[in-house]
Design brief:
Largest sheet of chain A: 6 strands, mixed
Number of strands of chain B: 0
Order of helices and strands of chain B: HHHHHHHHHHHH
Radius of gyration of chain B: 19 Å
Largest sheet of chain B: none
Helix content of chain B: over 70%
Strand order of the largest sheet of chain A: 5-6-7-3-8-9
Number of domains of chain B: 1
Number of helices of chain B: 12
CATH superfamily of chain B: ABC transporter involved in vitamin B12 uptake, BtuC
Shape of chain B: globular
Structural class of chain B: mainly alpha
CATH class of chain B: Mainly Alpha
Mean pLDDT of chain A: 80
Distance between the termini of chain B: 42 Å
Strand content of chain A: 25-35%
Oligomer: heterodimer
Structural class of chain A: alpha/beta
Chain lengths: ~250, ~280
């Protein structure tokens, strides 16, 4: 691997006296797609926000290049009149939107939307998009910055299963073709196993790291998810895990 | 056309009033989309209510009341912003306290400063008393609003869509909040002279609230807000003259009428989300 795009050394995040992320270290190279999995409240989004520079952290984060960020379920005022073109132009042109979108920007935005299979969305109102359409627009917006690192926070949450598969394929293609690194936050283990190079399991601390197939054992899942997770995998036989208490666990 | 209306184009003092109103309309028309889309309406209301305390304080301390009014507006708005950021309290509760509190303090201070000026003028404005000095103030506020909108409206628009997304693009949310609050403090305080502290917020909200129902793009909303603002302000001024009714309230009533038209337009299925 050449010089890593992202490297974390002993990163901890503490908010209000509570350690949400503790001593996390890993590196990520160009063209590599890793999944960040863990139960709710495990610090996945917190870690992303530290990488984004939004939260204070201890330790070191080295990043080479820009970040493209696709947030989890963008909550926004859907009655705000704004076309997809305007939304995508917002962060790339200095000219105020009230004076229109520059021809150059219109062209590049159109090309970017086409790349993510959303060419028809250009003049649609942002507030009228379906969940899947909105995710494509957000991905286009993230890619527009020519990022070295893509951060995707459960990007397909709220999208149907087929839409999610198509969206994930799109992400994978972008990562491979444009050699950017990507972190995909997910709680869907089956999706993660199929598409990512490496899986990072986090539950405040980094519990384990490795190839999906090696990691997705009942024991690891129980350890990361604290055992309250039953896994139903459509693609491969992963054992179901149940746990009745913190110390006592058994597998079916 | 009644003489009082033609007078706005021919008689010196009336021309100055018309220019004042146009500047107020431009300032509020430019800021309205930022206020409405970033949900800052309560802020401008709290600023407006704090101006009475500012004026009274100025009178008591013997300093220029316009200066102390602008100062009070900005200080109260910054206090609210800081309290919100530190405590995580909900904005409506904080603003409710600030709004009532600053008005009550204002009335008490005014009680001590009474005899200096007419409280009615501060509550409802004295449009036709606006003079050359006011024109410099509202003209400056209008120009500053246009400059800020010209420089930063895209950042404000991105913040309006999603603050986390904006932050990930390097838009410092707290910095832009600060800029907008200070600008609001300035513009609202200056406009209070025209329509009074009880009605000034209508000028800040109605233009974009109305154009938002008609527009299908952000660009449309911005220009629409400017058109609604100018129509309501100048129209209200003329209506007031023609029917001998107070001009400030006439502006607001006209603005509300335009808003209702946009509301029914939207309800009839023509709104931006219904494409």
């Amino acid at each position: 691997m050449s010089e890593p795009v992202l490297s974390l050394e002993g990163v901890s995040v503490e908010i209000g006296g509570r350690k949400l992320v503790e001593n996390v270290s890993f590196t990520l190279g160009a063209g590599e797609l890793v999944a960040l999995i863990g139960p709710n409240g495990a610090g996945k989004t917190t870690l992303l926000r530290a990488i984004l520079g939004e939260l204070r952290f201890s330790g070191h984060i080295h990043l080479h290049g820009k970040i493209g960020y696709v947030p989890q379920r963008l909550a926004f005022d859907r009655s705000l009149p704004m076309t997809v073109l305007e939304f995508l132009a917002l962060s790339v042109q200095r000219r105020p939107l009230a004076l229109g979108v520059a021809a150059r920007v219109r062209q590049s935005v159109g090309a970017m939307l086409e790349r993510v299979g959303g060419a028809s969305l250009l003049h649609k109102p942002l507030g009228g998009l379906s969940g899947g359409e909105l995710q494509r627009v957000l991905l286009a917006s993230a890619l527009e910055r020519k990022p070295a690192l893509l951060l995707l926070d459960e990007p397909a949450a709220g999208v149907d299963i087929e839409g999610e598969a198509a969206f994930n394929e799109l992400i994978l293609r972008e990562v491979r073709e444009h050699q950017c690194a990507a972190i995909l936050v997910s709680h869907d283990l089956s999706v993660v196993a199929d598409m990512t190079d490496r899986v990072l399991c986090i539950n405040r601390v980094l519990m384990c790291e490795g190839k999906a197939d090696d990691l997705l054992t009942a024991e690891t899942i129980a350890r990361v998810f604290g055992g309250h997770k039953a896994v139903y995998d459509h693609h491969r036989p992963v054992p179901h895990v149940h746990e009745h208490g913190h110390d006592h666990r058994h597998e079916h | 056309m009644p003489e009082i209306i033609t007078g706005y184009f021919t008689v010196g003092w009336q021309q100055i009033v018309l220019l004042n109103v146009l500047c107020v309309a431009v300032a509020s028309g430019a800021l309205s989309p930022l206020i409405v889309s970033n949900r800052m309406g309560f802020f401008s209301d709290a600023i407006a209510h704090s101006t009475l305390a500012g004026v009274a304080l100025g009178l008591l301390l013997g300093i220029n009341p316009v200066t102390s009014m602008i100062g009070a507006g900005i200080v109260v708005a910054l206090l609210i912003a800081a309290m919100r950021q530190r405590s995580g309290l909900s904005v409506d509760a904080l603003l409710g306290v600030a709004l009532a509190g600053s008005l009550a303090v204002g009335v008490i201070l005014y009680h001590y400063a009474s005899g200096f000026a007419d409280m009615h003028a501060y509550l409802f404005g004295r449009l036709t008393f606006l003079d050359g000095g006011d024109l410099i103030a509202v003209g400056g506020a209008g120009l500053l609003s246009l400059i800020v909108v010209g420089l930063y409206s895209n950042q404000f628009a991105l913040l309006a869509v999603s603050r986390p997304l904006a932050r990930s693009r390097g838009v410092k949310a707290a910095r832009y909040d600060f800029v907008l609050i200070v600008l609001l403090g300035l513009v609202v305080s200056v406009c209070v002279r025209a329509v009074g502290l009880l009605l000034v917020n209508a000028l800040m909200i109605i233009p974009a609230a109305t154009s938002k129902n008609f527009a299908r793009s952000y660009r449309g909303m911005c220009w629409g807000a400017m058109i609604v603002s100018v129509l309501a302000s100048v129209g209200g001024l003329f209506l007031g003259g023609a029917f001998s009714i107070p001009e400030g309230p006439a502006m607001v009533v006209l603005g509300v009428a335009l808003f209702m038209v946009s509301y029914f337009w939207r309800m009839a299925g023509h709104g931006p989300g219904d494409v």
